[in-house]
């Protein structure tokens, strides 16, 4: 029996969303329809723990290079050697690298996202977290955290473990190329108030507590970090990595490059 709580059922909300976005983009698989007839747009719903809700079209997760942001191009230009695309999503970056002959592995916690990657032709995929993957016998020269996925560093508590897992997966001389966003340029009181609230509860200002929703599904609440370059430098300090370059040509977005300390 269905119990009515108003709460989402916990499941692979990102995977189902990407599956539907892929169906809309390609006509492969059932497309979401309104009233069984008109196309329904596929929207990613992101809830923040202060009640803020944002929605954005999901189609960009499947974009080809022509529709990428300039920093995505600059990120892939920095790739060298065996590459792990962490949080591969719909596979837009991995697919492009694979076509350019780069040995690339896509890793994601969403089984549905990996299914879409496979359908699109990404050959090497791993289901799980970097921590679990560190136990496998695979080592990499480049780690990608694109599409704002520097966020996976989460905050002060998670950063040391996350960076250690990457180091365990790294070959000598390895690099991390991470896309981040400086959250502090805004004067929007909804955001500046949230940053203040976070600091009062001992978190970094841009340490977002989020969950994704898609149709009746939702994820568990998780932390996702949006941080300044100075905050990133602090988090990296004392880890096996050194922050060696920041490309902020598209401020407030930036690409941070970390190098494995010798
Ligand atoms: C914002 S999307 C970015 C997708 C892709 N990198 C891009 O640029 O289009 C975040 C992706 O990270 C995945 N993800 C979330 N938490 C993860 C984790 N702990 N480990 C690996 N992947 C994760 C999500 O399932 C999703 O595919």
Automatic annotation (TrEMBL):
Organism, scientific name: Micromonospora rhizosphaerae
GO molecular function: methyltransferase activity
One Pfam entry name: Methyltransf_25
Keywords assigned by UniProt, alphabetized: Methyltransferase, Transferase
Keyword Methyltransferase included in the entry's annotation: yes
Chloroplast is among the record's keywords: no
Domain Methyltransferase: 84-173
InterPro entries found in the cross-reference section: Methyltransf_25, SAM-dependent_MTases_sf
SUPFAM superfamilies in UniProt: S-adenosyl-L-methionine-dependent methyltransferases
Biological processes per GO annotation: methylation
Name recorded for this polypeptide: Methyltransferase domain-containing protein
């Amino acid at each position: 029996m269905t119990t009515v709580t108003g709460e989402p059922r916990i499941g692979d909300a990102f995977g189902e969303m990407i599956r539907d976005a892929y169906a809309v983009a390609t006509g492969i698989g059932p497309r979401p329809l309104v009233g069984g007839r008109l196309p329904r747009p596929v929207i990613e719903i992101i809830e923040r723990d202060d009640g803020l809700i944002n929605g954005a079209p999901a189609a960009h997760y499947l974009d080809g290079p022509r529709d990428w942001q300039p920093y995505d191009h600059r990120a892939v230009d920095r790739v060298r050697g065996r590459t792990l695309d962490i949080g591969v999503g719909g596979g837009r970056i991995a697919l492009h690298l694979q076509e350019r002959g780069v040995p690339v592995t896509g890793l994601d916690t969403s089984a549905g996202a990996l299914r879409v990657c496979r359908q699109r032709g990404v050959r090497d995929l791993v289901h799980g977290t970097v921590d679990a993957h560190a136990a496998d016998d695979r080592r990499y020269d480049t780690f990608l955290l694109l599409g704002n996925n520097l966020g996976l560093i989460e905050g002060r508590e998670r950063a040391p473990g996350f960076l250690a897992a990457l180091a365990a997966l790294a070959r000598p001389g390895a690099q991390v190329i991470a896309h981040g966003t400086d959250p502090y340029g805004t004067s929007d009181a909804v955001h500046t108030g949230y940053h203040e609230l976070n600091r009062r509860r001992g978190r970094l200002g841009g340490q977002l507590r989020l969950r994704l929703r898609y149709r009746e599904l939702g994820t568990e609440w998780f932390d996702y970090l949006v941080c300044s370059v100075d905050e990133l430098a602090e988090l990296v300090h004392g880890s096996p990595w050194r922050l060696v370059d920041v490309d902020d040509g598209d401020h407030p977005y930036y690409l941070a490059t970390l190098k494995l300390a010798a």
